[in-house]
């Protein structure tokens, strides 16, 4: 029995090509786009990419997660000191999820290059999720933030964490909040080491959650203007709280706030 003939996808009308692309998972689309300049240009022309979501994670290993129309693809970049493993790829399927591991000497650099290509193919300027543990790649935090500043117009939901209390990430936190635009949600779960910590807090968020908010005193609270505000471990006194509530009720301050929780 002779092998099947290659399917001439590029000879199809564009609408038919687009239907073929809709049946592909995001990795298949990216792999197709890498074949030639022509396939790359065709890959960038699809009209349904607005339904795709792109998420970035920097925890134990950097990750790019792509939510397609049917499948969710996660690409992990795993640091390796084994020369034989450098560049190797492992893929596993689990239901709707496709897990892709890429072994690299410099996972952050590879993660950046792969992300730029993903953004180009799917014609994205903003990303849906950024989740970052600031104590994982401390020496590269500034480089990562500068990269995001140059390549991402905005982030819809951002979560920042600190796993090692002994590592001071105050400056990195402030630098990220000064340079990355956050549209909808900010979750901040880190320890504060400096009394003068005073980062920019985005305005008009749908939700602001700060789990160690000792640095947010009364005057700073008056500046917060988000729809839902949750502040844990907060030092505001009962007297200040009562004054704030009175101002809030008569709409003298924080007019966008609909829900406020202090602990």
UniProtKB/TrEMBL annotation:
It comes from the Eukaryota. Residues 6-52 form the F-box domain. Transmembrane segments: none annotated. Pfam families: F-box, FBA_2. InterPro entries: F-box_dom, F-box_Sdz-33. This is F-box domain-containing protein. It comes from Caenorhabditis remanei (Caenorhabditis vulgaris).
């Amino acid at each position: 029995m002779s092998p099947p003939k290659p399917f001439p996808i590029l000879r199809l009308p564009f609408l038919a090509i687009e239907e073929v692309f809709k049946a592909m998972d995001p990795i298949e689309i990216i792999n197709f786009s890498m074949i030639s300049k022509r396939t790359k240009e065709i890959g960038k022309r699809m009209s349904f990419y607005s339904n795709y979501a792109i998420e970035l994670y920097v925890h134990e290993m950097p990750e790019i997660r792509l939510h397609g129309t049917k499948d969710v693809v996660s690409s992990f970049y795993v640091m390796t000191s084994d020369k034989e493993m450098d560049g190797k790829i492992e893929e596993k399927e689990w239901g709707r999820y496709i897990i892709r591991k890429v072994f690299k000497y410099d996972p952050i650099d590879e993660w950046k290059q792969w992300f730029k290509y993903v953004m180009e193919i799917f014609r994205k300027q903003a990303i849906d999720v950024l989740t970052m543990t600031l104590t994982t790649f401390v020496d590269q935090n500034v480089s990562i933030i500068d990269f995001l500043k140059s390549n991402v117009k905005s982030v819809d939901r951002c979560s920042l964490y600190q796993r090692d209390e002994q590592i001071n990430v105050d400056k990195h936190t402030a630098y990220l909040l000064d340079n990355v635009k956050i549209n909808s949600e900010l979750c901040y779960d880190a320890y504060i080491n400096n009394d003068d910590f005073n980062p920019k807090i985005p305005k008009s968020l749908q939700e602001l959650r700060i789990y160690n908010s000792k640095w947010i005193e009364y005057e700073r609270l008056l500046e917060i203007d988000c729809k839902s505000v949750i502040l844990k471990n907060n030092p505001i006194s009962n007297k200040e709280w009562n004054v704030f509530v009175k101002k809030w009720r008569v709409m003298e301050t924080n007019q966008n706030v609909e829900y406020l929780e202090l602990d």
